[in-house]
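User: My instructor asked us to take a sequence, write out its structure as tokens, and then describe one feature of it. I'm not sure where to start. Here is the sequence I was given:
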Amino acid sequence: MMDVGPHNLENRPAGEPQAAGTHAASADGPTAAGADPASRSAPAGGQRRHAPATRLLFLLVILTILLALGFVLPLFEERTALRDELVRLDDEIARAEALIAAAPELQAQLAGTEQELTRSGLLLAGDSAARAAAQLQTRIQTLADAAEVELRQLQVHPTPAREPGLPDILEPVEIEMELVADIQGLRQMLAGLETGRPLVFLRRLHIRARLERADPRTGNYSVMPELIVSMTVRGYHLLPAAASDTARQREEGVS
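Assistant: Let's start with the prediction itself. The structure tokens for your sequence are:
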């Protein structure tokens, strides 16, 4: 018995050509089943060819941006610094203009302060250091006579050092002295220097005590020791230029 099912044989006469429909179906079979491998690989190959170009373009854009930032940022920072400097200069100019505008008032206040200092008697008189030192020597001698103190030495320091922060209109005058006194006389001398006018400041004080024989025959010593004292005192006077300006303004006010 002949089995025709599995082999799918057709009953057609020998030598009869195959039907056109059947031939077309077998010819077009691969197209219907799926795309040709060559046609499927063509788009993938194009994408691979375009991918490096896209990456290169992206890198060029990034590089261009970085270069632009490298040039622009320094210029921007320089412009910002220049603007800040201009603002600072404007502030300084404004302050300078304010000082210039206030200069007459400040000069008047300074002149008034100098006049007040001169009238107060707190400063040594005289438009020179020599005259101020002479006034200070006279005051020391007067106090020594009142306290019954023996002055052994008076010496004027030619160029005493200025204290930090001392106003420019003031000049120091300094005298070093050596004296002999008892305790009561020294106390009176120091009180007169510290409380009187013009103002005098004690800069240095050194005291040595010496006992004297009250009675050479008995060899007894006096109860009150003799004090040998060396000290330095300082006063101040207006500088010559400031003093002359004050005197001139006083004369102008009187006239």
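For the description part of your assignment, you could build on this observation: The beta strands are 150-157, 170-181, 201-210, 213-215, 220-221, 226-238. Try explaining in your own words what that tells you about the chain.
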